[in-house]
## 1
Amino acid sequence: MRTKLLLASAAFAAGLTTAAPAGSLTVSEWLKSVNDRLEVADPIIGEVQWAYSTNVTDETAAAQDAASIEYSKLPLAILSELAEGGYEAKATTFDEKRLISLLKAGSITPKSNATQAVLAKTLSDMSSVYASGKFEGKDLDELSGILAESRDYEELKKVYLGWREVVGRAEKPLYEKFVKATNEGARDNGYADTGAAWRDGYDMTPEDFMAMMSKALGQVQPLYEQLHCYAKAKLSDLYGKEKIMTADGTIPAHVFGNMWSQDWGNIESILRPYPDVQAVDVTEELVKQGYDAVKMHRLSEEFYTSLGMEPMPESFWTKSMLVKPADGRTVECHASAWDFYNGDVRIKMCTRINHEDLMTVHHEQGHIYYDLQYKDQPVPYRTGASDFFHEAIGDTMQLSVLVPKHLKEVGLITKELTDGLEQTINFQMAVALDKIVSMPWTYLLDQWRWDVYSGKTTPDMYQKAYWDLIEKHQGLSRPAPSTAEDFDAGAKYHVPANTPYIRYFGANMLQFQFHAALCKAAGHTGPLHECSIYKNKAAGAQFKKMLAMGRSKTWQEAMSVGTGGMYDSVDGTAVVDYFAPLMTFLKEFNAKSGVKCGWTQAGTTPTGPPTTTTSTPGPTPTKCHRKKAAKQH
Ligand code: X8Z
Ligand code: ZN
């Protein structure tokens, strides 16, 4: 291992020292030299990060820190050559200008070596705390299993709080240090703070981007509120009104089957509207039919190839980590897809044999198929048209995969299907428990983070600001009080990993728009929730065309290509249309149930009957970007 890392480091240095004297090259020669250097350096940093993520030790962490300090010389060198060579002013073609603007956008590498070292170290320390966190001897995977399966209110509460107690609190001092260092890097590159850097590069002004996202949230929030009200009734039946019906109308956050209440699919059996009608949860069938991780990934691959995509390269199957290693080493279990920029693509995932993970497999492969389609583009274009595109590809496929007729076709539903409304409602509920539920959550996390980066939220307010947003947007409450020492945001992967999160909200919207457009390309008529594009080459070809563009054009142009001209903007109408039957069902159910819908916002006392929250997505801070180094999603 050590020798391998030393070799990597030597190769790295070689990749970093091939720059020609500034100004001696034409713009296109210089861009080629940038591309050549990125093609050398990116696979190397990728390997070092992979070695860490699949075996978290002090040694792999130290190697990763050293490599990332080494790697950061590259973007700094590129930016200084750019300035010294005057290449921006000399660029004439569309591609020269776009490539240069992409090289510049969002760069936050600090100029000071000391700060780079702090950044590298706090990032890997935060990741190690997260990856090795255990409560009562159980890691996150095991704790998540309890949250998914237990129906014991007190046990759920203990596990929910325990993970935060152990990991959140330990992350807090590291995160404070990290925020200072990353903001210094942002300022070195002309940004007010890291949040501002993240929001740069969406092919539109940060204000317009935020207005677009905030409008979309407003469109879908009424649906979430109905779902919230419905869940309140069903969970009260199970756990008792005294536990679920709080004075302010929020629901305790620990009873939704998920550590962050961001996907309620694991309590689908509690929330299933018609318990005697066909369910859309294939866990039982997967287990019964002896599925293992590889078979689940093969099933997903077959979906993509049915659209006309190539199978995964053989190295995907030999180099990926598809199951949690049995040898007891610590790994980062949070699923991710990796592009090594040389045709080598991998997934790292502790795949469990259940419905939720079958969906995640399709999500991760969406990243990989995007990587494979744009692999011949220059390196700066080898990424999503925007980061929310990258997150939307696999999710778009999920919308076809989940269709009961499709699941029947691939043998994961064995009972006869009916065409009745009850089956439709069960099905829509299952989809909504994943996709509608995640909308307020994916919107709010970066609202919190941008305020932290900008300094509006100071460390003593980290916890309060986080929960204020959860109460406001999700209508959920912490099952026990906390103090400023608590840091529940740090107990969510993307915060210590420093992965931007608004991308998942964008993807939540986009996938329904892509689905509508691909179904049209497939010649589907009838409701969109009945459409599966499985085996449809016309839909596949249209999507492929967009994927192959990578980031070579604006995301609006890419969207227009991928949707056959149907859309060039993010909008929640497709979501609302898709779920029309469920919305009707929920409104009728909630009107009859007698449960008071809605909740009051954090810090306010309910007056009179609880009102439905207006869910105005709040003042409009701004948005985000992508990480430059190794490409993981
Ligand atoms: O992090 C992920 C993927 C990798 S990009 C597994 N997701 C978000 C999360 O888990 O919080 C997918 C859904 C949202
Ligand atoms: Zn992803």
## 2
Amino acid sequence: MIYINQLSKHVDEQVTLKGWVYNYRSSGSLVFVEMRDGTGLTQCVIAKDDVSESTWEAASSLKQESSLEITGTVKADDRSIGGHEIHVSDVTVIQIAEDYPITPKDHGVEFLMNNRHLWLRSQRQWAAMRVRNEIIFAIHTFFQERNFVQMDSPIFTGNAAEGSTTLFETEFFEEPAYLAQTGQLYGEAMAMAHGLIYTFGPTFRAEKSKTRRHLSEFWMIEPEMAYYDLEMDMNLAEDMIRFIVKTVLDKRANELKILERDTTKLQALVDNPFIRMTYTEAVDILTSKATAQMLDDMLASRKEEEKALKKEREEIKKEHGSAKKWRKKQIEARQIEIGARLDQIEEDYRNIPKWKKSAQEFEWGNDFGGSDETVLTMQYDVPVMVTHWPAEIKAFYMKRDESGKHALGVDVLAPEGYGEIIGGSQREDDLEVMRERIAEEGLDESVFEWYLDLRKFGTVPHAGFGLGLERTVAWLCGLSHVRETIPFPRMMGRLTP
Ligand code: 4AD
Ligand code: MG
């Protein structure tokens, strides 16, 4: 047995493939099976004249997602999916599948999410999971090559670290406990033992918001470095993101193609430095006349586009009636494309004025909303790193600058409206200041005793950040919602499958 992604090494040889029927089509004395085996897709052609009667019977009985073994000769064929075609000599059916609920037609998202366990087999979902896997491997490679020690932080914790409003409360032998919102505090302890560490684990947030960027359970990568300041922290974050993007572009070009990802903007950041600005500078940009103008221009260009698309739609509709069969198909595909784009434009009409209002009325001291991040990052092809946040809106553990007004924190905002993918900071390393912060936040100091010890026994400047894996996958794959970036998403209203 070989796998579909090895076919190029077996051209003109006889091979056996084991997998499933992805697509099935029969015409007279030919059956076409698009077969998938986990590594890819290939077209198998079964000709009645070339196979035994029992094989032909088996082939004719196949249905979508039936499991089967196919033996045949590999032929190079540029027009065929994956560049090969199998001329089949034998078919062994493992199981004829029941009527498969997910058919090639359009399904609603709710339906697909309810069938997530099956939806994972579809091409786009398959591609996204492969990109996710590549990102995970790239992250480990990046840190391991730089002498970081991977550590596992606990999931049951006794305290909040990222605000008390998003805690999942549970019970730990009759004691209240919380699912970890972050591994950072434990990472800080390990960094004092190993210098350079990173966590890679699940984290939990009980945000009662249903947005395309929020999961209740997501995976976070949190490096923590002794003797690092904010700038070194930012340099590391930038290097890491560039490394991830480069790796995915190099190794997952096929998957990105399946996902129809336009990679020009990803390419741009490989060779260009990220944008760095303070929060105050970012607010100035949001509230500027230039930003208002940019959004007005965007709205105007959407109006132009809408006009052109509607004109095209009229024209091809007229053509459809008398078109040849192949052209009819082409027209119908284009009609679907136009429809989707018009829906998108419709949404932009609703959104852009809201974005403009939110940006123009933004007041210093507030946190950025999703749309503010979008408006800010729209202006660049590379990620934007925003630093020096109003201390009040950032976590208690962040060190402050000399004025005391700003937290030495950084948010990395991905381009193309994918929002915050990294939150990081230099940490408060002074015992007394840390005590004050904990008190100011109304946190119970007793649960932080061990954390305060880190400031008693050889405290040093240190820094770290947290990368959200799913938001990174969404960005690199060009997916509009994080629900498609993890095999089984957990979010408000979604606990099964
Ligand atoms: O900005 P956050 O809350 O930072 C921390 O948790 C720090 N302790 C990290 C550190 O300095 N070690 O979260 C970090 C990242 C965000 O930028 C985002 O990418 C992701 O985690 N994230 C979420 N992803 C999906 N769903 C959610 N509900 C998320 N909340 C945060
Ligand atoms: Mg954050």
